Amino acid sequence: MLQKISISNYALIEALNISFGNGFTVITGETGAGKSILLGALGLVLGKRADVSVLFNKDEKCIVELSFQLENDSLKPLFESWDLEYDNECLMRREISPKGKSRAFINDTPVNLQQMKTLGSQLIDVHSQHDSLLLVDQNYQLKMLDTLIEDQSTIKQYKSHYQEYIKLKHEIEQLKSELSNNLAEMDFLRFQLDELEAANLVESEFDELQQRLLMLDHAEEIKTSLVEINGMMQQDEQPVLPQLMQIKRQLEKLRKYLPQATSLDERLNSVLIELKDISFETDQLEADVQFDPNELEQASIRMDLINHLMHKHHIKEFDELLKLKVELAERLSSIDSSEDLLTQKTKLFDSKLRLLQTLAADIHKQRLAAAKPFEQSVSALLKQLGMPYGSFKIDCALTSSVSESGRSRVRFLFSANKGIAEAEIDKVASGGELSRLMLAIKWMIAGAGFVSTVIFDEIDTGVSGEVAAKVARLLRQMAEKVQVVSITHLPQIASKADAHFFVFKEDAKERSFTNMRLLNQNERYEEVAKMISNDAVSDVALQAAKSLFEVN
User: 524 with 63: CB under 8 angstroms?
Assistant: First the structure.
């Protein structure tokens, strides 16, 4: 239930604090006094966008706060999902700074505008003249029918699965787009990988191949040098090794007479061992080095292939060529994985669609079940509202495809005249009939208990006389189920309220102000008398006003 509205620095309102009670409250005032400003401020807290143009004083921030008394814990899970503190008293506040910055709070915790809007829609239903036009919208009609379904679990389950269905649909579309682009380059990637795989590249072979080619290119030179080295060691006129052996023999003779000769002999012996080993290896190398034109040709062809691949792929290092081969294989594997993923998601999508179709069929049955008593109740209420031949029907047909709301197409049909078949509302309902039809439907929804507060902005448009009295009685009946606030210009409605607020404009030296106050009983008599006699409070008008208060 709405307990209090606090408004500061909004439009023509400098500061205003209004407390509301249970039951039926009316708000009246002269045209232009600022009744619509109250709804504007209320809409600000309920999530509508605003800018600095709403500021009364352009140098100060605007603050609008609503205080609600929560009558049960039905909203507690919502608070917990947002990590908000839950209390039976709920405060919703919106602030607009002079620089246009907007801030929203629930129980003094900052929230985003969508959270504010979501919570507000579950606490209060604001009906303006514009909302009557919404009655011709089929999506709005479907939403109103759904509020009368007692067990909402299937609808909630459907909405949850539908969000997953839409997410899967987007993922599949994205995968298909990516695969379409990938498949265009897949053949090229495969060609590149096949070429690299056919090359049978081996790690470190490039350096070894370079060295082998160098040796084969200079085989004769290498062989000649090795022969000369070996000759100098053992076969020349004065070979190195035989001469060193003679030196060793002389040192061995001296060891008897010269102690130092022993050390020299040992050192020379080490040199001889090393030189003999060198001589043997050079001899082996010389034997191994052979010039083979075929091997040179094959090695050159191999090197040309590697250089060609490196140049083709703009690569300077052989290791990078090996890395490229791995990357191409991974890229192709990724494309194959995307195809597998697309197959998996498509199967999941099809399964989700079948589930949605089943749930939607169940929901459609629930809608058909809810539609019949809805039709009967609204038609009965239309008769109470001065339309003795008023008739309301709901055409609920099963569609072939699923949508956000299921598989139902709903049309509200209406007739106000005897013998005239029901037709779509926008084709047959006048402004006054539309308002009364909306009131009857809102009365039904209020009875379902989905919000605790309903605010009507001139729901009495287009009605007067006895019909106005019937509208008043219906509003009073509705106030037995939910808190009702009605902005009205009809004395019949104003006289039936439990509380009556009067909106007025004050003109100061520099500007005008909008204010609002609660009327006592005598002031209510006078205000209703003014509404009866167009602002002239005569004894007759005053007596007529009092008589309205006495009529049940």
Answer: no
